[in-house]
Amino acid sequence: xxxxxxxxxxxxxxxxxxxxxxxxxxxxxxxxxxxxxxxxxxxxxxxxxxxxxxxxxxxxxxxxxxxxxxxxxxxxxxxxxxxxxxxxxxxxxxxxxxxxxxxxxxxxxxxxxxxxxxxxxxxxxxxxxxxxxxxxxxxxxxxxxxxxxxxxxxxxxxxxxxxxxxxxxxxxxxxxxxxxxxxxxxxxxxxxxxxxxxxxxxxxxxxxxxxxxxxxxxxxxxxxxxxxxxxxxxxxxxxxxxxxxxxxxxxxxxxxxxxxxxxxxxxxxxxxxxxxxxxxxxxxxxxxxxxxxxxxxxxxxxxxxxxxxxxxxxxxxxxxxxxxxxxxxxxxxxxxxxxxxx
Length: 342
Prior knowledge:
By secondary structure, this protein is α+β, with helices and mostly antiparallel strands. It has helices spanning 17-24, 28-40, 57-64, 152-157, 195-211, 240-246, 259-263; strands at 2-6, 44-50, 72-74, 111-116, 126-127, 143-144, 147-148, 164-172, 175-183, 222-227, 291-295, 301-306, 332-336. β9, α5 (195-211) and β10 (222-227) form a beta-alpha-beta unit. α1 (17-24) packs parallel to α3 (57-64). Residues 249-282 are annotated as: Disordered.
């Protein structure tokens, strides 16, 4: 079983525009993303920047564009773009993208979409998307000069999840595997109060709590996957958040690597460049490891990788001359032995 996550840029500037582009079938970026998914051909795929529509039209269109469409699909409305009526970013105004429950220019902006070749136990899904930030075990809300930032009203209303936190059971040969799917805010674009840095770290703390039995949660062979927007060695953010997840005794880190990332190493970075999953400018954050697939320690991993071919590899053509045809993020995959699950 191949499980993958991909922060492919399938969000657009307004509601319905992704569906429009999928119907038109003329968008070169979508074509590149489809080509990458076809090449890797995962059995389970989480897309973490996919505009939500209530009817699931976009998901169906995307699936149908693949060589082998997915029989099972799932999505929920994300927090992105849900307006709070509050001044969430503390700029003195309300109603803009930063004043939503999660950053979003419109309802559903850049949500998540799950595709599977295995049945999804929809009735048994646990959605933690509305878990209040202040209720996260060991969470830390932002303050400024000793007071709640930006306000107590925001602290009382804001969920920790900027997009979504889903606990999704799937049936693999009669055995249940539990997907822990999410996408975190970037730990940047804030001030000294470190609003986004703290939120990014606490979005990971949700999974720490769940793995440790939060609210009696029972997990069968969990696999944590998604865009953590956090690198354990380089870039911005509170590194203890992702470090704690990578070292959690219930999970294992297959450390997916690629030759493309290795060949694009940034000077001054500390982490192993072969593990990077995002190709950002060197005068910005540089290349970082931000997307993860972390299986249960009880599962047997038979392979892992990042679709980032070396520049001289024929498959590199799928990413275009600049390597960015499918966006700056690269698909991360892990192969898991399923013989014991049958």
